[in-house]
Amino acid sequence: MSLFVTFFENLYYRPKWYHWPVALLLLPLSTVYASVMWIRRVAAKPKNFGIPIISVGNLLVGGSGKTPMTIEFAKRFEDAAVVLRGYGRRSEGLFVVSEHGKILVDVNISGDEAMLLAKSLPKATVIVAEDRLKAIERAKKMGAKVVFLDDGFTKVGIEKFDILLYPPKTPNMLPLPSGPFREFPFAKRYADLILREGEDFWREVSCEGCDAPMLLVTAIANPKRLEPYLPKESVVGRMLLPDHSWFDKESIEKEMKKVGAKRLLVTQKDAVKLEPYGFDMALLKLRLRVDPKIFETLERWVEKSDTGK
Asked: How many structural domains does the chain have?
């Protein structure tokens, strides 16, 4: 990754004393940005789509477990649809990635997160679109009984049940670009349910095929969060790319040869883009263990929404 990206990831998630002068310099811009987001939220008139909509989002940029949490929720419902923007995809417009588990497009069209959702939810429908309102309408027409919005907290024009994910620590509480917050931190009061990592849900990571010298190749936000889960004795090199980046096969092959790696070590999100290249890959598999009371809360809300129609 570039020094610029690395600097800001450290400012947001692991700030040192020398990061704060830059944060203070950017603070006027951060205040303007967060104020605009605040006015936008207060002025919004959310649209009711006549279908239960559950948003899984966060206030911070970067990985907080939104996609694996969406998977845990959506797989518990029949006729569920997942709607997301599809960041980093090589396409524009609305695409049905999968229909009731049948995958209809490739990863270039879907993007990495949408393809991971489609492969992880064999009974659900996954739709990508810049315009989430159109995607919800399409999901309804396709027979969805409940819609999940992956990364939907800032979509203030949609009437929904907002779930907000919070990391164990937030060392920088400033809005973008001085800090990682997409809005003022007090915007969390608009969430219907706040889930804190370490209290309401826990990450469980396993490493499959991690018995050979490996090159870690990943394009996720804040890749240093993988460090606690790496089999460090087997990781002989690292290629860390910005979030949602696409991979170059020749560059990876050169780096593998340089460090003596026999296999790649990747996350599930990276694997869906690397599979076509035919590399031997070990997999860091993440699933979330969620307090069962959370599922009960969601099921009650969906049942109540259906009854209230």
From this structure: 2
**Is 228 among the domain residues?**
yes
In what order do the strands lie in the sheet containing 146-150?
A: 102-103, 95-99, 125-128, 80-84, 146-150, 53-58, 161-166, 193-196
Which of 59-63, 83-87, 212-216 has the lowest average pLDDT? 59-63
User: Burial, 178: exposed, middle or buried (Cβ in 10 Å; 0-12, 13-18, 19+)?
Assistant: buried
How do residues 248-287 score in pLDDT, each as one tens digit? 999 999 999 999 999 999 999 999 999 999 999 999 998 8
How far, in Å, CA of 96 to CA of 248, rounded?
Answer: 27
Of the candidates 188, 152, 154, the one whose C-alpha atom is nearest the C-alpha of residue 170 is 188
Its domain, for residue 241, covers: 203-288
28-37, 58-67, 147-156: segment of lowest average pLDDT: 58-67
Q: How confident is the model at residue 309 (pLDDT cuts 50, 70, 90)?
A: low
Does residue 96 sit within a domain?
no
Digit-coded pLDDT (tens) for 122-167: 999 999 999 999 999 999 999 999 999 999 999 999 999 999 999 8
Indicate the pTM of the whole model.
Answer: 0.93
Contact 228, 200 (CB under 8 A): no
Alpha carbon of 157 to those of 25, 146, 309: distances in Å? 32, 18, 20
Residue 125, helix vs strand vs coil: strand
Residue 47 lies in a domain: no
Report yes or no on 81 lying in a domain. Answer: no
The CATH number of the domain holding residue 276 is 3.40.50
User: Residues 6 or more apart from 268 whose CB is under 8 A from it?
Assistant: 116, 120, 283, 284, 285, 286
